[in-house]
Amino acid sequence: MLLTVDVGNTNIVLGLYRGRGDGAELVRDWRMRTDARITADELSLTMRGLLGEHADEVSGISALSTVPAVLRELRVMLARYYPHVPRVVVEPGVRTGVPLLVDNPKEVGADRLVNTLAAHHLHHTACVVVDFGTSTNVDAISARGEFLGGAFAPGIEISVDALAARAAALRKVELVPPRSVIGKNTVECLQSGILFGFAGQVDGLVRRIVRELSHDPADPVAVIATGGLAPLVIGESETITEHVPDLTLLGLRLVYERNVR
């Protein structure tokens, strides 16, 4: 089975696929906290603990990391504990088939690259991918599968943390929809501003990006939400058309199949 590993700034997401191509099936997925100080040995032990009975069934690995310190330990872990397992670590030089139409292709994060590949694989049309993570990334993809660039905004959790840290009378609250947009108490005011505010921010960015996309107006543009915090916002968004929580894992599987026969 193929193990996919997505190391983000906040979480590490693992996915286990059975089969290849159109017949591939995501058997299980797991989520663990990212620690930039984690060692290769700790990473291997934690991963094997999560994989459980499937730990010895791994026959291929496809991984990416947007955290340089963890990327280094990830490489050590793969070499030390999976020396004979075919593997792909997404980086410059790895075949993805995604043209990068940006000023500096080396600046494009591996997560944005594999999300582009997965989104175009699913829709074969112009797409916008909204990734709700540590930052909120809104990326544009052409109908030909080209990565066109996008926009970054502060993520939900870091915005909440910053607000609680800088405003003495405010605190962290449970991120659930309030009774109405007009909050009647401090908690509801915070919930309204966070949930409806981020939904409005995303909708505004998506609408502007769609206007700039070069596509036939008659063809719809798929707007795909992914990332761990997506469920908080997608119910309030007017532009998101689909929620694909395993989009990055799908992209990692597709990259592996392009590079390992």
Strand arrangement, largest sheet?
A: 3-2-1-4-5
CATH architecture of the largest domain: 2-Layer Sandwich
Uncertain segments = none
Name of the CATH class of the largest domain: Alpha Beta
The run of helices and strands is: EEEHEHEHEEEHHEHEH
Task: State the total count of DSSP E strands.
Answer: 10
**Continuous helix count:** 7
User: For the residues shown, what is the average pLDDT?
Assistant: 92
Structural class category:
alpha/beta
Q: How much helix is in the residues?
A: 25-40%
Can you tell me the overall shape? globular
Number of domains: 2
Radius of gyration, CA atoms, in whole angstroms:
19 Å
Largest sheet: 5 strands, mixed
Strand content: 15-25%
CATH topology of the largest domain: Nucleotidyltransferase, domain 5
Q: What gap, in angstroms, lies between the N and C termini?
A: 14 Å
Question: What layout of secondary structure does this protein have?
Answer:
Elements: E1 2-7, E2 11-18, E3 25-33, H1 40-51, E4 60-65, H2 68-81, E5 87-89, H3 110-123, E6 127-132, E7 135-141, E8 147-154, H4 156-166, H5 186-212, E9 222-226, H6 230-233, E10 242-243, H7 247-259
Parallel strand pairs: 1-4, 4-5, 6-9, 9-10
Antiparallel strand pairs: 1-2, 2-3, 6-7, 7-8
Helix pairs in contact: 1-2, 3-7
Structure description:
The mean pLDDT is 92. The strands form 2 sheets. The protein has a 5-stranded mixed sheet, sandwiched between helices. It has a 5-stranded mixed sheet with strand order 8-7-6-9-10, sandwiched between helices. It is of the alpha/beta class and 261 residues long. The longest helix is centred in the C-terminal third of the chain and has 27 residues. The protein has 7 helices and 10 strands. The chain has 2 domains: 88 residues, 2-Layer Sandwich (Nucleotidyltransferase, domain 5), CATH 3.30.420; 137 residues, ATPase, nucleotide binding domain (Nucleotidyltransferase, domain 5), CATH 3.30.420. Helices cover 36% and strands 23% of the residues. Helix 3 crosses helix 7.
